[in-house]
Design brief:
Structural class: alpha/beta
CATH class of the largest domain: Alpha Beta
Strand content: 15-25%
Distance between the termini: 56 Å
Oligomer: single chain
Number of helices: 10
Number of domains: 2
Number of strands: 12
Largest sheet: 7 strands, parallel
């Protein structure tokens, strides 16, 4: 993998375009919006992942302008929290799919917030975002490092240590503009149901998307459906999240406004 400069034509601040020399993706430089200098960006040499100027992400603009697929489009820049497995023993198909998800996330100008794990699907998401030139914020409890519970991703732009698991989840929830849940185990299930419960209770209205690789979450969805049929969960709660197998559809959902127009009394009995 080689790092190259993007080809740049014009004077900073004039709104000129930058082009990824491998992928052909054009984007307005950050200086056109923020008066900053041109930043370097890591490009893939296989052309698979368009680069994202790092200044876009570090400045956290909400909108930026891309020339993508032969047309100009406004793109929303978000901090997206990814919940997923830390295991090193899962099938490679999940790892590859989540790494591609991270790469696509960065190509669309989004930043990653995650649990700072270096292995499993947490590591895969971070590697994908890093290859795309995106910004990475990891959040992990101090005792994970002290007790060597989990490998920590060593290339975070920002690494936040917390005292407890509760603080870790709270910090990720605070930083995130949206949540993507990829396959995982007990911790991932807990994280999903916590942000879902908080949305049900009206504590946030952030998009929640499940990336259902290979039908991994089919059985969980059936469990939720059965609970709705037995009146343990109100059917309106199904409006609080969406399940996707297609990455483009997933990002279309995450980046658009999704007001459900429901109150806690529409979503919960008790």
């Amino acid at each position: 993998m080689n790092k190259t400069d993007c080809v740049y034509q014009g004077t900073p601040g004039e709104g000129s375009l930058r082009q990824n020399s491998h992928t052909g993706l054009f984007c307005l430089p950050s200086c056109a919006f923020f008066g900053k200098g041109i930043s370097r960006s890591a490009d893939r040499d296989d052309g698979r992942c368009p680069s994202t100027p790092r200044a876009f992400v570090k400045a956290r603009p909400k909108l930026f302008y891309l020339f993508f697929k032969r047309k100009f489009v406004w793109c929303l820049s978000m901090n997206i929290c990814v919940f997923g497995a830390a295991s090193t023993k899962i099938d490679e198909k999940y790892v590859l799919a989540v790494e591609e998800l991270g790469c696509e996330m960065a190509s669309r100008g989004h930043s990653l917030v995650f649990g700072a794990g270096g292995n499993g699907l947490m590591g895969a998401a971070a590697r994908g975002v890093r290859k795309g030139g995106g910004h990475i914020t990891g959040v992990i409890p101090e005792f994970f490092r002290e007790e060597q519970i989990e490998a920590i991703f060593d290339d975070c732009d920002e690494l936040i240590y917390t005292d407890t698991m509760r603080e870790r989840k709270a910090k990720m929830e605070e930083l995130a503009d949206a949540f993507i849940i990829v396959p995982g185990g007990i911790g991932t299930f807990e994280e999903f149901f916590e942000v879902l419960t908080l949305k049900q209770l009206g504590r946030h209205d952030k998009p929640i998307a499940i990336y259902n690789i290979g039908g991994f979450y089919d059985n969980m969805e059936k469990m939720v459906y059965d609970a709705m049929q037995e009146k343990f969960i109100r059917s309106n709660c199904r409006m609080l999240y969406m399940i996707f197998s297609d990455v483009d559809e997933l990002f279309a959902y995450v980046t658009r406004s999704n007001p459900h127009g429901l109150t806690v009394h529409d979503l919960k009995d008790g």
